[in-house]
């Protein structure tokens, strides 16, 4: 319901509704004997337009059927109202709609067939200068079709740019975490190798002093021994903490991937004990979630994608599912095949299935 309301507020849909409302005003000039049939045809055309405009993209065949019905109704109105000009406007609207679902060649071919039919109808009704009228119609149709075509290309380019930017942000987050981990590891090694070595040497020297009868009774030597021991223990604790703090921030990277997508919403749950140190594993997990986000938006028309990552006895478990509805059986295209190859390269296994709503469910298990 919310998706339909969102589509209704789009500029192209509002422009089409306004155009149909304006066209309906011209019906008052029709003779009384054809007015009911013309009004019914225009109302049916309007219903077909609303179905086409408001239906989700996954309703491919219903939208195509609505498009065919709209073309037939436009020609019917050309038959009923040859001198009002209703059909010409409806054909312009039809071409603007057809650009959304047909290839450029398909739109050109279908438009030529419709205009030839329109021309023959005008000749049948003995309309003055039917060829001139048809050519003018083709000009307006071409203008409308080109405007919609380039608007869609600009929108697709914008969406693609947003996805690439999100990909770069996610990759940058992983690289930054990897660099921080490398720096923490370097500092830990330096503390262990340099400071730890020198403190150990100092402890040995203090022990040698403590064994000398001249210095054995001095409190300063005893306190220095105690402080050196405590300081060495503290450095070892810091080194261990620096090593234990390693781990890439997958949560930030995954959320950066989902940020530019209006749909589906991401529901992410990463267990507290999960820690990924290997950048290759982190990148594979990131690409798996990215592919599932794309599939959920493009093929399943999902509203929510649920991602959970947790540790198990045998390793790491990534579970992903969406609340959409896939058409037909699950087919492993390039995206899913790429996921399977990534998982196999890491020595893991992947299982595909359907979610409760009929969307995609993916389980990936990686060894510890």
UniProtKB/TrEMBL annotation:
One example of the protein's molecular function in GO is: kinase activity
Q: Does the keyword Membrane apply?
A: yes
Question: Which parts form a coiled-coil structure per UniProt?
Answer: none
Arranged from A to Z, the UniProt key words for this protein are: Kinase, Membrane, Transferase, Transmembrane, Transmembrane helix, Two-component regulatory system
What Pfam families does the annotation carry?
HATPase_c (PF02518), HisKA_3 (PF07730)
* Domain Signal transduction histidine kinase subgroup 3 dimerisation and phosphoacceptor, chain residue ranges per copy: 183-245
InterPro entries per the UniProt record, alphabetical: HATPase_C_sf, HATPase_dom, Sensor_HK_TwoCompSys, Sig_transdc_His_kin_sub3_dim/P
Keyword NAD on entry: no
Where does the chain cross the membrane? 12-30, 37-55, 61-80, 92-121, 127-151
Q: What is this protein called?
A: Sensor histidine kinase
Which species does this protein come from?
Pseudoxanthomonas mexicana
């Amino acid at each position: 319901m919310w998706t339909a309301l969102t589509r209704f507020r789009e500029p192209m849909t509002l422009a089409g509704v306004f155009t149909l409302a304006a066209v309906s005003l011209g019906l008052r000039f029709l003779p009384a004997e054809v007015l009911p049939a013309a009004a019914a045809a225009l109302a049916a055309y309007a219903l077909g337009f609303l179905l086409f405009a408001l239906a989700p993209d996954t309703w491919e065949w219903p939208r195509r059927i609505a498009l065919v019905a709209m073309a037939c109704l436009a020609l019917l109105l050309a038959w009923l109202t040859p001198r009002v000009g209703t059909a010409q406007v409806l054909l312009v609207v039809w071409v603007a709609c057809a650009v959304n679902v047909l290839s450029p060649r398909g739109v050109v071919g279908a438009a030529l067939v419709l205009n030839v039919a329109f021309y023959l109808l005008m000749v049948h009704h003995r309309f003055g200068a039917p060829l001139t009228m048809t050519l003018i119609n083709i000009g307006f149709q071409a203008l409308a079709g080109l405007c919609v075509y380039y608007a869609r290309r600009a929108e697709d380019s914008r969406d693609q740019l947003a996805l690439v930017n999100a990909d770069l942000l996610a990759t940058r987050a992983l690289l930054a975490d990897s660099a921080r981990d490398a720096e923490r590891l370097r500092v830990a090694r330096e503390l262990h190798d340099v400071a730890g070595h020198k403190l150990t040497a100092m402890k040995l020297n203090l022990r040698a002093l403590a064994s000398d009868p001249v210095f054995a009774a001095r409190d300063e030597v005893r306190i220095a021994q105690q402080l050196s021991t405590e300081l060495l223990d503290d450095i070892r604790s810091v080194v261990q903490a620096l090593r234990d703090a390693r781990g890439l921030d997958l949560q930030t990277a995954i959320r950066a991937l989902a940020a530019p997508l209006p749909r589906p919403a991401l529901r992410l749950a990463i267990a507290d004990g999960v820690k990924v140190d290997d950048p290759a594993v982190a990148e594979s997990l990131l690409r798996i979630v990215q592919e599932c986000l794309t599939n959920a938006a493009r093929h399943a028309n999902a509203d929510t994608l649920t991602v959970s990552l947790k540790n198990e006895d045998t390793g790491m478990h990534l579970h992903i599912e969406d609340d959409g509805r896939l058409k037909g059986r699950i087919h492993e295209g390039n995206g899913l095949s790429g996921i399977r190859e990534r998982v196999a390269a890491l020595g893991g296994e992947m299982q595909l299935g359907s979610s409760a709503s009929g969307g995609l469910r993916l389980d990936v298990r990686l060894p510890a």
